[in-house]
Amino acid sequence: MRIFISYRRAEDDRSYIVGQIHERLAAEFGAGNIFRDASGIHGGQDWRSVLGGEIQSCRVMVVVIGPDWAGLTDARGQKRLLDPNDVTRWEVDTGLQRSRAGEAVVIPLLVLGAGIPKQEDLPESLRGLLEKNVVRLRNYPDFNQDVDTLLRDIRLALGYGSGDIDIEPYEPETIQLLGGLFWMGSPPGENIPIYETPRHQVELPAFRIGKYPVTNKQFEVFVTETRFEVLRQMGWEGQA
Fold it and tell me: Which of the pair, 74 or 211, is modelled with greater confidence?
């Protein structure tokens, strides 16, 4: 569920808001799932290799668009987005390619009063950005409401929601986890039980899980309505 934040470094002196966006996303989805180059590339690393890996592995790319995003020029007065070697162009171009392949979702995020870029200001490879529904992030007092809209759209893009299981009263509020591969077990070694080896990959389908721990009261309703047999060794004796 990696989320990649793409933004113009040259706008960052005014776009302090990028830091606020990063903080809110990290609080919602976990800091380890959010990538922003200012904090995600360490000294000595090949920055292009790191960026490429993060773009290829992200499920959502948030393209932060400030007022100068499309019109920013280089020392020669040429628009940077029209330079094939421009990093932002490369990031967004790659994200749009993955979006067309159904591998990622690209969300344009307009900040600091920016408008939707004009078609003539974009290279052809980025014009697919104009087909994406944008999210506008306004200043206070609308900021928190707009961030909530962004978080909702990211949750939908990641394929999970909450509060949509209401068939039976004992069924809890849930979230959906996406399927995929993970490593299970441990390599053989000292103090490693044999049943934990070998380390191997397991593929899980998408599944839903309770958002919160099941309470005794919920379990009591479940036992009553389903007549589930609870054994004493299970540690539950009907406490409410």
Answer: 74
Class of residue 95 by CB neighbours under 10 A (exposed 0-12, middle 13-18, buried 19+): buried
- The pLDDT of 9-18, averaged and rounded, is 65
Higher confidence at residue 131 or residue 140?
A: 131
Q: Percentage of the chain with pLDDT > 90?
A: 39
Q: What is the secondary structure of the chain as a DSSP string?
A: --EEEE--GGGTTT-THHHHHHHHHHHHH-GGGEE-HHHH--TTS-HHHHHHHHHHH-SEEEEEE-TTTTT-B-TTS-BGGGSTT-HHHHHHHHHHHHHHTTS-EEEEEEETT--PPPGGGS-GGGGGGGGSPPEEEPPTTSHHHHHHHHHHHHHHHHT--SS---SSTTPPPEEEE--EEEEES--S-TT--GGG-S-EEEEE--EEEESSPPPHHHHHHHHHHHTPPPPGGGT--S--
Return d(Cα 238, Cα 240) in angstroms, integer: 6
Let me know: does 187 contact 176? Beta carbons within 8 Å.
no
- Flag whether the pTM goes above 0.70: no
- Give me the sign of the Cα torsion angle 47, 3, 176, 97: negative
d(CA 54, CA 51): 5
Give the per-residue pLDDT at 44: 79
pLDDT recorded at residue 167: 47
Contacts 24+ apart (CB under 8 A), 201-206: 203/179, 204/179, 204/180, 205/179, 206/159, 206/176, 206/177, 206/178, 206/179
